[in-house]
Amino acid sequence: MSEIAGRIEQLSPEKKALLLLRLSRKKALGRANGQAGTLPPWRPAVRDGALPLSFAQQRLWFLDQLVPGSPAYNIASAVRLRGSLSPADIEQIINAIVARHEALRTTFANVEGVPYQQIAPVLTIPLPVIELGHRPAGEREAELRRLAAEEARRPFDLASGPLLRTTLLRLAEEEHVLLLTMHHIISDGWSMGLFFSEVAAFSQALLTGQPDALPSLAVQYADYAVWQREWLAGTVLAEQLAYWRAQLGGPLPVLALPTDRPRPAIQSDRGAHESLRLPAELSRELEALSRAAGTTLFMTLLAAFQALLHRYSGQTDLVVGTPIAGRNREEVEGLIGFFVNTLALRTDLSGNPSFRELLARVREVALGAYAHQDLPFEKLVEELEVARDLAHSPIFQVM
To answer: Looking at residue 24, what is its pLDDT?
Structure first.
């Protein structure tokens, strides 16, 4: 037992968090299914009929019907590529990835108001090349940023697709910047990382003349969507709902920060971005505190954030939203698709707890939420019958 504990202690904070998530999930599923915590097996879905959307995809499809052509759910990224690969090589690599992942070949049909997934058997993504090497260095970087921002704002058509775009900015003979934009309905942050890791794997294979080391994909995103709708029903759905009703039932607090302007009657998407880098020594101390308290680094930082919100608002009932990857099965860890969900973490700060006590409360709340993460957030809002107010988001106002 001590040997296992020692091995766990050597894991990175991210891997420890994933292990903790899986263990808590198995425990909850054991309660829900009356078994040893096993999920029903996956199997490739029959492809001779209409393929449903996942719950998350359905939410984004509905939002697109309300505001067609909005770039709000574009996911854009840029990565510098240095080496001897030609634009033709890079285009070949991109289309090898498209061939691996059905989600990248998917569009969404509207049949009498009901959306369905349509998967193209073959799809070739073009790679336009824009030459920037002839410009002076400062002007080149400014133009790069302008083109990247412009590309990120271009809308997608969910019905006609494709829902993936690439552009190559050529800076020098062996230096390029690859702009990658996907619609969120087929992708998420984890997926973007997977895409670029596969670019690296295919690049290495092309340069060395060796086969790529990528594992074959036993299932695809459409299989997950079918499985999710079959599994998240009956007693499993009831157990998930019961947990969240217990956590979020009753009057929900609205965060009341002492801002210098009143909250507008209708919230907008105007805002700003501020980054904060913690000193290395403070980061190490936070990791040590987390180990001593039996929490992940995320839980420790969440507790600190909630303590800050309490200090400014004076409120002891706080709900903070957080995205969660939704990759709680090995089959989906290497799959490009839209798995991310949103969790509402409600913590009780009453009684003037010490920070150690607050950590214990946050840990309990987080583990419970991880074990019940499969209920889509939009389904939760619907089931709780939360009163809507255009001035703020439902359930929580800060993430």
So the answer is: 52
Query: DSSP secondary structure string, 316-383?
Result: SEEEEEEEE----SGGGTT--S---EEEEEEEE-TT---HHHHHHHHHHHHHHHHHTTTS-HHHHHHH
Segments of the chain with pLDDT less than 70: 1-39
Q: What residue spans of the chain are helical by DSSP H?
A: 2-9, 13-33, 55-66, 87-100, 137-153, 189-208, 221-231, 234-248, 280-293, 297-313, 355-371, 377-384
How far apart, in whole angstroms, are the C-alpha atoms of residue 60 and residue 73?
Answer: 8
Model pLDDT for residues 312-325, shown as the tens digit of each residue: 999 999 999 999 99
Dihedral, CA of residue 43, residue 46, residue 47 and residue 50, to nearest 10: -110
34 backbone φψ class: left, alpha, beta (φ>0; ψ -120 to 50): left
- CA 217, CA 212: separation in Å to the nearest integer? 14
Long-range contacts of 251-254 (CB under 8 A, 24+ apart): 252/319, 252/386, 252/395, 253/315, 253/317, 253/318, 253/319, 254/392, 254/397
Which pLDDT belongs to residue 34? 41
Burial of 159 (0-12, 13-18, 19+ CB in 10 A): middle
Place of tokens 């494709």: 162
Max Cα–Cα distance, the chain, nearest Å: 67
Q: For 347-369, how does the pLDDT look when each residue is reduced to its tens digit (9 = 90+)?
A: 999 999 999 999 999 999 999 99
pTM of the model: 0.84
Backbone angles phi, psi at 353, to 5 degrees: -70, 155
Number of Cα atoms under 13 Å in the Cβ half of residue 234: 7
Whether 64 contacts 161, CB under 8 Å: no
